[in-house]
Batch of 2 targets.
Target 1
Amino acid sequence: MANKFHTNLIVSSAPHIVTESDTTRLMGTVILALAPAWVASIYIFGFRALLLSIVCVAASVLFEFCYNKIMHKTQTIGDLSAALTGLLIAFNVPSTFPLWQAIIGCAFAIIVVKQLFGGIGRNFSNPAITARIFLFISFAGNMSTWPVTRLDATDAVTGPTPLAILAEGSTDQLPSLGQLFLGFHGGSTGEVCALALIIGGVYLIIRKVISPIIPCAFIGTVFVFALIATGSLHMALFHVLAGGVLLGAFFMATDYVTSPKLPLGQLIFGIGCGIITMSIRLFGSYPEGVSFSILLMNICTPLLNNLSYKFYLKEGGAKNGK
Amino acid sequence: MSQRKHLPSIHVPHHKNTAAAETVTMPVPDEVSISMSQNIGAPCKPLVEKGDYVKVGQRIGDVEAFVSAPIFSSVSGTVKAIEQVRGSMGGFETHIVIETDKKQEISEEVKVPEINSFEDFIKAARDSGMVGLGGASFPTHVKLNPKNLDECKYLVVNAAECEPFITTDNREMVENGQDVLDGMKMIMQWLNLERGYIGIETNKPDAIANMKKLIEQNEIKDMEVVPLPSSYPKGAERVLVYEVTGQTMNAGVLPAQLGVILDNVSTIGVMAEYIKTGMPIVRRRVTVDGDAVAEPKNVFVPIGTRIADVVEFCGGYKKEPRKIIMGGPMMGRATKSDESPTMKNTSAILCFSQDMAEVKEETACLNCQRCHTACPFGLMPSIFADAYADKDVDKLNRFNVMQCMECGSCSYTCPARRPLALTNKLAKFMVKEASK
């Protein structure tokens, strides 16, 4: 009688089923959403863009692996977050950027920004964006030497980005909006093809991986700010399409860990990113301000969380069916 | 009533594999073990002693307390033992173990109740032994007798059955729809209610069609079927009251305070059976399913039958069982052994093999807030988890942890596999302890 029963069953708290979607799958979806921009970057900048992205992904994963090994932590390379960081670093530097410098950037992102603060879920700022700023300050020359696209008819090897042309004031040489939209202009590896980034961003919103609040607020603010400041619809669209706004708004400002939890905070976060970006572009000495804007708003995230909690709790916390 | 915004909900796989499986009656097992703790409130005291001969429908457990329901023998046979068994809640329960003689002799106590007044009706509800068969096992006669009865206008019947796998309410409406309507009629008559609503998720088209047809055939004017979206947790009391009446119901509030009498559909059907035949609750319909069961079925199980006997009737295990859940996979309880007996509120027995039983490893919170957007009440389980770890009772209170109804939506959606529903439960316990 005694051995008739199974008496050693697993007992755990409800619920006993969970969704299929886990961290790995979420990160994988973001990487998939970056695929169009990745393919476009290889088409536009050639083999060097492919090589750079492979090196950055491999380096980031390796640094994460080694850090976890040395510190005797649970191995986390399987969740693909390090691979995503590596890909975003490659996207944020010129395709001709020296590989050894890119590897230093990956080490900084993974070890300093991510792991020293406690690893995935604990970093206060986006590792890729912080690495971009780190590289920008450390290797300013290489970080502002932009290769021309494969389709450039001239014999030049390097050329300026649209925002750099604008900063110099030579507006007649600006690329057309069509060129910007398709990505045939100078810039960081992954930021040039607006079309591919929009496809990826919309895919993430449809798959409900990201909420549309931050990208809409960010891009909308850039558009409105530029429209008011320049008085020209053409220039407003130019500011949205040129530089890193789309890459930043869809893929880096929306990083769960470093953006506010509640919609109100996310709205302010997105607007703040837009205002800082445009202030740097129009009034600062740098032609581009997306990375600084995201980093600064990352730092504001705890404050925005506290602010939005206040409003959330004033409504009674729970929605109570309203 | 239709254009209202729905509360947040999540999509869980339905797995209603047994929706079309007609209920079969299993043979009486050699032995049953009937728990004396089958309802919320006071546990019953045994009314029989070791060696007594008991018959089907004989009252074997009862207690004086108001919030309680009597317990009846589901078999005829001899009381073999009265023992203390560790129950699924962790504490000890008294069980009456009966060795059956398989004759299923009906007790002389079983007779059709005479109902001439509201008091008679409430007494009949108690004598039927009914508790909420959906899982909460709240004594039905208490629910039907609120303090503010004259303010109550509506009867809301919970037939949402939002838990995956379970199809017992569905079968009750398909097989026993007339009794459900009769039960509703009696409740509305004796409690003087204006209107009856049957809330059914749209993934049960057979049940919806049958109930609509019966309402039409009986020419009933004051009842209607309310189709609900098939998303979890539409069958939670507070969600259902909102979906049907539009009234917000906070934790700690009873439906009656909002003018609503709310009962599970099977509860009403079985109670109507008692009022017609005099046979109290001695068996119940159980969905047996899960990847470790050979033949998933809907079975009428004598209360007290051990899980192993029920599964044996369903062709036994086809894989080694590693987890057995009494109730649904979202809110049901895992039992440590298939020796555990079925109870009045055992709506399902789900046997999972290693593939489905494995508890996934927890990883770091990504702050994605899926737990927050999944919560029907918009609570923030990730904050509860942090505050619980910090033992910050004040923060738990500020963020309204006590509003949590432990539906499990947060744990289900968490990509980091955090056991948020568990931390919510523990956090609520911590708040209760602190307020003592």
Target 2
Amino acid sequence: MLVNVFTKTTRDRWKGMMIGTAALAVMFFLAMSVYRDIDISVYTDLPEAFLLLMNIPADADVGSLAYGAIYTSYGALTLAALALVTGAASIAGEERNGTLGLLLGNPRSRTNVLLSKAGSMLLLTGLGSLVLWGAGRLTPAILDVNVSGIDVEALVLHMFVNALFYGFLAMAISAWTGSRGLASGAAAVIMVLSFVAVGLLPLIESLENAAKVFPWYYFTGSDPHLNGISWGHLTVLVIGIVLLAVTAVIGVNRRDLKGQTTGVAIVDRLRANPMTQKFADRLAGSARVSRIWIKTASDHQALLLITAALMFFAMGVMIGPMYQAIDSALLSLSDQFPEALMAMFGGGDMSTPEGFYQIETFGMIAPVAVIVVTVAVGARALAGEEANRTMGLLLANPVSRSAVLLEKAFAMVLYALAVGLATFGGVVAGSLLGGLGMDASSIAATSLLATLIGLVFGSLALTLSAATGRVPVAIYGTVGVALVMYLLNAFLPLSDNVAGYAKWSPFYYYLSSDPLNNGMHWGHGALLAGLAIALIGLSVLLFSRRDLRQTG
Amino acid sequence: MTDRIAIHTDGLTKHYGDVRALVDLDLDVRAGEVFGFLGPNGAGKTTMIRTILDEIRPTSGRASILGMDTRNKSVEIRSHIGYMPGDLAMYPNLTGRDTLTYFANLRGGVDWSYVEKLADRLDADLSKKVGDLSSGNRQKVGLIQAFMNRPDVLIMDEPSSGLDPLIQREFQTMMRDVATEGRTVFLSSHTLSEVQRVADRVGIIRHGRLIALEAVASLRSKAIRRVDLYFDAPVDESVFVGLPGVREVTGTNHHVVLSFDGRMETLLRVATDRYSLVDITTQEADLEEIFLTYYRDEEVSA
């Protein structure tokens, strides 16, 4: 292993890991303090199928609720996502920056470099897990909550190994393809799919065992926070990790390294094909570069396509029939759902299709999807061009800084609308397929509100990007604020004393009016739109006042 | 060359925290000239350029281009300039043609046949993705981008890095053409020979201060050069001693070597009056020597 490669990678990436896990720690603290305040006896009466889905033991107490809700879902997903990003960037990131050639100009083998990167990923994920372990131990002590039934160490160890699996998955894809985007995208899709599958499949009796196909099963399947370490399951994951690592080593050694270049977009392929060349030329060439906003929009096309497709199919179309499939099991549970627990997932009554869609699609996933695309555009719009050193060239043209910013903001709005539209289309189709008879205008209203809440955070990313010119500040800053705001809105209402403060979170104006049942709440919509516009205005002001950065 | 002023700076100063990147720069670049802006790395050349382009804002002082203030009129100014950044980066996933189309669309009024002509002159391949081009070929796309709108003022920061000698020569001709048409070139460089070849005047900057501003011709005539004179018979080298401009004389038979910084006319008259001069070579002092001389001075005073 190369100590300096290892150290440098660790130094470059530790902030992201620390911010992510610290946010989780805060989240955990909030969740536990709210659970402590509310009457949780209601949970104990919950039916088994539901408890399974939410990862809550039948004799739930404050502790198991908090660990189950925060650590095994958000926590594990976030930790795995952080490992995954590091893994995807390992080789492909240096190729993209054009620094890999320089690195390999030294008498070091590719395997060596890759393993050093893997080591750094291991260390960072370990540090993140330590933070989570610390928070998991300290919080109950501070809040004076009894967590005697919980095996925090086993849970965190499972989280650690689980996260590494996705990190190495991304690293293997990155090593074979040299594409960071592809690696993180594909690994994330696999991760989310297996998370959802392991959560939902056990509800369908005939498919109970199908969950074992998905790697996530070997993380939560044994309920490590209750039953302790499952060495069998961990072994499965570790074998997977070793196989992926070997795959990565083989991959990185057998292919040509890329120079500092370019992804191949779909239009590029069409352009190379003589059959479609003429059409694609217009699309990719002259049309793509006709305006700043069009170019900005085309720069993130892959992300948009994936997100919109995911929202349309997985979160829209498929949910309807799925509701049909498990509806009898859920119907029997109606009226038993405590509002408190459901708040975490955006609230909603699972026995109605609206409620089910709210929990599955709109509560959390839809705003996250819109936020992902708007933050990607918002953060990279200005700071990205500065980091890539193209801003000077762009601004040598007779366009003002405000014009550049507004065109980029326009592209961001289009992106948000596209995801909103895909969600709307998918849910309408899902409702038709499942014969659920949901009101299309209410679906439209909810999709619009999801678009607007996404735009609020996209605009925040744009503001940070305009103010600082630093992509990481814009991304991590926005994600941090969004997490806290989401939590404020999810947990504060559970405790009567502080419920009013939830109105300080933009998320309050997303679903508090229950738009899936009640239709559009124009006041809330206007408030979110106003907030987004104000942030964009602020970014115009900030961007025109400061010195452009010369380097990333 | 006219007396109109293309670029004017007035006490232009830029500090980055404690670092004084640019100190009290007073400079006039005349319309219709090629102005060479010379200095070693980190002297403040790029800071100056980024300031007058309104990428960064001066700590104090002001600047104008074509009489327009660089802060208030920056957008209007930019429709009259072409810019070649020193650390050229473009969009790797666009082809050269797409890149130029993008900027042409932002500018408006770019004559595409002129773009083709420029591409032809520089032998540039516009069909490949910028990210797949070698750095020299990428540089060509950047140059076309700077020239394509026939700007009144061309601002170029180390433009010829990576270009092969043939293309460099073509590029220098292009710069001279711009000046001949009454337009202006502001050429920042540390490539002395290039500035020497194309510039009318040169400013030398160091540690953020302008330490010299001269016509290239007069700089050159100031410089000491080595002159070798070959005769068909042994000569008495003492006849050259004391001639105006002659610094040092050494001779061996047919061959006399002079250190010389005067006018060639006087020297040649003496050399041909009494003797039969067979051959003469002079090693022209390049700006390098002048450059170093100035720096040495500066170092002494600093």
